[in-house]
Automatic annotation (TrEMBL):
Signal peptide: none annotated. It comes from Fundidesulfovibrio magnetotacticus. Keywords: Membrane, Transmembrane, Transmembrane helix. InterPro entries: Cyclic-di-GMP_PDE-like (IPR050706), EAL_dom (IPR001633), EAL_sf (IPR035919), GGDEF_dom (IPR000160), Nucleotide_cyclase (IPR029787), Rev_trsase/Diguanyl_cyclase (IPR043128). Residues 312-560 form the EAL domain. Residues 172-303 form the GGDEF domain. This is Putative signaling protein. The lineage of its organism: Bacteria, Pseudomonadati, Thermodesulfobacteriota, Desulfovibrionia, Desulfovibrionales.
Length: 560
């Protein structure tokens, strides 16, 4: 319809222009060739009036302009060449301009009736075309993502709802696979939203060829997640690893190379999961679990996923107010000298006895306390309490406190330490801070200046769980450390495993070269203790020497 209106408009304009040229040619030719006669004058007036009347607004413009131009031409001729013949033409042109002007004004009532019908029809056609296009677009946007053109979440949910209600006993279980593209927000912020859309489009093009007839719909979910609805869950299982595989490769757009990570969650609906809403919820929970645990494979929803996520929510809720309710306590695990077996200090380990959840293990709640920043306030309490308890111990004993990266990066960390030391009146040299290798993934220069600042307080810094995570050894020589503490997995593999002993031997040498004390934790047997002593470890810690205990219990060990 837009096309029709456009063609009609063009034809009308062409007609006006043709009349204009004809008018100028006729009127100009006649008037300059010979003096004006009554016929010529009448011809000029008639054609001008006709154009004005028939062709509406543009007719009026053409007619008016033609007569005005002719008037200028003739008057110039009169003044420049003294051509007396043009004088009647000048008068006729002037009066025709006047007549067309009057008609033009009057025509608003008469002439526009036809035009109004034509214009009205055209504008109606245009409006209809626009309305239809808008309607089509709205219908498309209701079911598709505007930027990528992929089916949207609503479309997916509707399709799933229809599928679930219609599936009954006809086919086997269906499946929903969600594949989240990590760092899309980052890509969008750094390289622009258009680039991010292009990345998603490029990735969807990789998925499409893999999807056979088994897939009902490929859609975009929450801006960064591909959602696929499979009619056949078996096909989903088969295809999902291929889908993850094709998404691993970097995306190159206009010479810009980006790395995208993916995580995937899926649900299989055997008709018992519930309605479409509940199926999607399960798929999302599985995806959440995959993202959180950084699982490289597809996590398929089951009861254990649901339980883990529920527990997580409960722990996060229970952490609020736990400190105020005195639900935390500290226990201490002794560390002994490898040669004499005498206690040289103890490591403070946090315990949480929640009012609602009962006893929760640190392995479970500390990562959540870090995630929710609760560790900042709890960490301050730990430092205070550990220093206070240690101030009651024999003077040669040290106290080791585990420090989360979140705490260490806190601006007030140094003042927390000095505050805790001065409140407990504890010698700074008796405090050891246990940090983990995870801190090393941050800006090394920054971490180093932070640690050298902390060390100005005269406290000691221990690298905990050494060898368990980040592999680069280069940082060891640069950062300000006093002690290495090897992970208990090393300790526990030392007996009977020659290769592990070889690695430990190398670590001990490294520590010696760098002048660091070296401690082994997780010592459970006499055999392990002897092997570690022979390898050159300085201190040992583990169930062999004592389980984590309250400070009162620990003090009893002094007497023995
Ligand atoms: P970690 O710092 O490596 O602590 C040593 C863990 O090994 C403790 O577990 C301890 O009970 C356990 N352990 C000690 N000796 C043995 C042994 O001979 N055999 C075995 N199998 N295990 C042994 P726990 O208390 O459950 O703490 C787990 C982790 O939670 C700690 O690992 C530490 O990363 C974190 N954590 C504990 N307390 C705190 C704290 O106050 N602050 C922070 N930020 N993290 C803490
Ligand atoms: Ca530790
Ligand atoms: Ca450790």
């Amino acid at each position: 319809m837009i096309k029709v209106a456009a063609v009609s408009g063009k034809m009308r304009l062409a007609a006006y222009l043709a009349l204009f040229v004809a008018s100028v040619a006729m009127q100009g030719g006649l008037s300059s060739a010979s003096p004006y006669t009554g016929v010529v004058a009448q011809f000029q007036v008639v054609i001008s009036v006709l154009i004005t009347l028939l062709c509406s607004f543009w007719g009026f413009v053409v007619s008016f302009a033609a007569n005005a131009c002719l008037f200028v031409f003739l008057i110039t001729r009169y003044f420049m060449l003294g051509d007396q013949n043009v004088l009647p033409g000048v008068v006729i042109c002037a009066s025709t301009v006047l007549v067309t002007a009057i008609i033009g004004k009057y025509k608003k009532v008469v002439g526009t009736q036809k035009d109004a019908i034509l214009d009205g029809r055209l504008s109606l056609e245009r409006k209809c075309a626009e309305a239809q296009a808008a309607e089509e677009r709205a219908a498309f946007l209701a079911t598709h993502d505007e930027a990528t053109g992929l089916a949207n979440e609503r479309n997916l949910r509707n399709r799933l709802a229809g599928y679930v209600s219609g599936q009954a006993l006809e086919t086997g279980p269906c499946g929903v696979l969600l594949v989240k593209v990590e760092n899309m927000r980052h890509i969008s912020l750094v390289l622009g939203s258009r680039f991010a859309v292009a990345v998603l489009q490029a990735l969807s093009k990789r998925i499409e060829p893999l999807l056979g007839q088994d897939v009902c719909l490929l859609s975009l979910f929450r801006h960064d997640t591909f959602a696929m609805l499979f009619a056949d869950a078996v096909a989903m299982h088969k295809m999902s690893s291929d889908i993850l595989g094709v998404l691993q490769a970097n995306v190159v757009i206009k010479d810009v190379n980006v790395k995208v990570g993916v995580h995937a969650g899926a649900v299989v609906d055997d008709g018992r999961t519930g309605n479409a809403e509940q199926i999607m919820q399960c798929a999302e929970l599985a995806l959440l679990y995959a993202v959180r645990t950084r699982c490289a494979e597809v996590v398929v929803y089951d009861e254990s996923v649901a339980r883990a996520e529920k527990r997580r929510v409960e722990i996060i809720a229970a952490l609020d107010g736990a400190l105020a309710n005195n639900e935390f306590s500290l226990v201490y695990q002794p560390q002994v000298d490898v040669l004499t077996g005498a206690i040289k200090g103890a490591e403070a380990l946090l315990r949480w006895n929640s009012r609602n959840l009962g006893s929760v293990s640190p392995g479970e709640f500390i990562p959540l306390a870090e995630e929710t920043q609760h560790i900042a306030t709890v960490g301050r309490w730990i430092l205070d309490q550990a220093c206070k308890d240690a101030s009651q111990w024999p003077e040669q004993w040290t106290v080791s406190v585990n420090i989360s990266t979140v705490q260490l990066l806190n601006d007030d960390f140094k003042s927390h330490i000095s505050g805790a030391l001065s409140r407990a009146n504890l010698d700074p040299q008796r405090l050891k801070l246990e940090i983990t290798e995870s801190i090393m993934i941050d800006d090394m220069e920054f971490v180093n200046s932070l640690l050298s600042d902390v060390k100005k307080l005269m406290v000691r810094v221990v690298l905990d769980d050494f060898g368990s995570g980040f592999s680069s050894l280069s940082y060891i020589k640069n950062i300000h450390l006093d002690e290495l503490k090897i992970d208990k997995t090393f300790t526990q593999s030392v007996s009977g495993d020659k290769r592990s002993q070889g690695v430990l031997k190398a670590i001990v040498r490294l520590a010696d070269e760098l002048g660091l004390t070296i401690t082994a934790e997780g010592v459970e047997t006499q055999c392990q203790a002897e092997l570690l002593a022979n390898l050159g470890f300085h201190r040992l810690q583990g169930f062999l020497y004592g389980r984590p205990m309250h400070t009162v219990e620990l003090l009893k060990l002094v007497v023995q």
